[in-house]
Amino acid sequence: MEYEATIGLETHIMQKTGTKMFCSCRHEYGAAPNTHVCPVCLGYPGALPVLNEKAIELCCKAGLLLGCAINPYSKWDRKNYFYPDMAKNYQISQYDQPLCLGGQLEVEVDGAMKTFAIERIHQEENAAKNTHVAGGSLVDYNRAGTALMEIVSEPCMHSAADALAYMNALKQIMQYGGISDCDQEKGQMRSDVNVSVRPVGQKELGAKVEIKNMNSFAFIEQAIGYEIDRQIAVLEGGGRVAQETRGFDADRGETFTQRTKEDAHDYRYFPEPDLMPVKISAEQVERWRAELPELPAQRRARYVSELGLPEYDAGVLTSDKAVSDWFEEAMRHTDNAKAVSNFIMGEMLRLLSGQGTAISESQVTPEKLAAIIALIDAKTISTSAGKQVFEIVFNEGGDPKTIVEAKGMAQVSDDSALEGWADEAIANNPKSVEEYKAGKQGAINFLMGQVMKASKGKANPGAVMQMLKQKLDA
């Protein structure tokens, strides 16, 4: 029997706010445990929450970026559960009246465009961080109460490739929109993955299995693949897939049972009595809409249409916002977009990968890359020499023009010097000369190589080729 998988994602994204969702404690990753806490985020009795207006703005802007409708009236609810990561034994969230409704995300999957529907985006507070050690668990409440929004997709994906394309596009949009850095290593973006399978042609969805707290795209891909195969094997064996919550063991590449899946009534949702509902005017929504930035898809299209870059280049440059912003800055200092693109995709990304550093930390600034390109365009140095200068600046710093002068890397274009090297190459290689005159055009490339060798790479290649042709065709 043939089966079809159905996948939905509940993606939690930590927003870029300076303080937490309902108190004034600072939001700072890596601080000493339990130092950014107060009676509110520690759940002390009688401590009252105060709404973070910036978080509401960011949540609504995220909704606008994804084509959601902004709810003019939304309210807060208590999601009750008992676990050490939530000191007050409930989470302030949104249940039936969230900030954002509907929306969609259009992405390319295996060369085809697909549209994935979004059900809702709601605002809530984050839980604390549990660290499990031998003999017990440690809880850091620095993360408790930080601003967190949950983007819930419809069950509209059917493969791991669909899910990864959706997640990558979502991450880019949130980064470009200034909503979140989406640093998965810092827990700023993580997803609960809902997977079910059913026989092809069956209308009803199969039993939903939720895989919790996935903060790695690679692990999401592995978990989906494993879970689809597992559920199909259960059904093929005559069994019944249980609705449950599962974890993912990265070492074994397998999911495992954690607990029976909760339904909404298990959380005993009820309206939050300590917070007023949120009312958002149409005028406010339009002000936020006017502030929305250029998205990666728009930037890719602009790079192709206005800068003349190939679609491949545009895709690579916009896949990471920091890289794209760096490219944008470099274009303020040069009009040679293709050269900037080539250096970023070649030397820059290779060297950054080797050192494990971010592009913002590179000693090659946009201004210095533009200076290197200017030296190449002026034929002061060759492209090969330009790459050498780039690597020197990357590793040691310095001014490109000064480096070229100090290391004697400037190209030689003087006719008298070139003529001597050309005559020497012709005299020492009569066979190549005969082959060229006999119609073998490629033979001139060998002579060209001999000139470049004699000049130690300093001869201007274009000028050398022109001079060799003049002498050989005479």
Describe the structure.
By secondary structure, the chain is α+β, with helices and mostly antiparallel strands. It folds into 3 domains: 3-284, no CATH class; 294-406, no CATH class; 415-473, Arc Repressor Mutant, subunit A (Orthogonal Bundle), CATH 1.10.10. Helices cover 39% and strands 20% of the residues. The chain has helices spanning 53-65, 160-176, 217-236, 282-290, 296-305, 311-318, 321-330, 337-355, 366-377, 383-396, 400-406, 415-428, 430-437, 443-454, 461-473, and strands at residues 3-14, 69-70, 73-74, 77-80, 90-93, 100-101, 104-109, 112-125, 129-133, 136-140, 147-153, 189-199, 209-214, 244-249, 254-260, 270-271, 278-279. Strands 1, 2, 6, 7, 8, 11, 12, 13, 14 and 15 form a 10-stranded mixed beta sheet that branches. A 3-stranded antiparallel beta sheet has the order 5-4-16, with no helix packed on it. Strands 3-17 form a two-stranded antiparallel ribbon. The termini are far apart.
In oligomeric terms, what are we looking at? single chain
Task: For the record, give the distance between the C-alpha atoms at the N and C termini, rounded to a whole number.
Answer: 77 Å
Whole-number tally of structural domains: 3
What proportion of the residues form beta strands (DSSP E)?
A: 15-25%
Cα-atom Rg, whole angstroms?
30 Å
- Major β-sheet profile: 10 strands, mixed
Helix content: 25-40%
Tally of alpha and pi helices: 15
Low-confidence stretches: none
Strand pairing plus helix content: what structural class? alpha+beta
- Count the strands? 17
Mean pLDDT value: 92
Which geometry do the CA atoms define? elongated
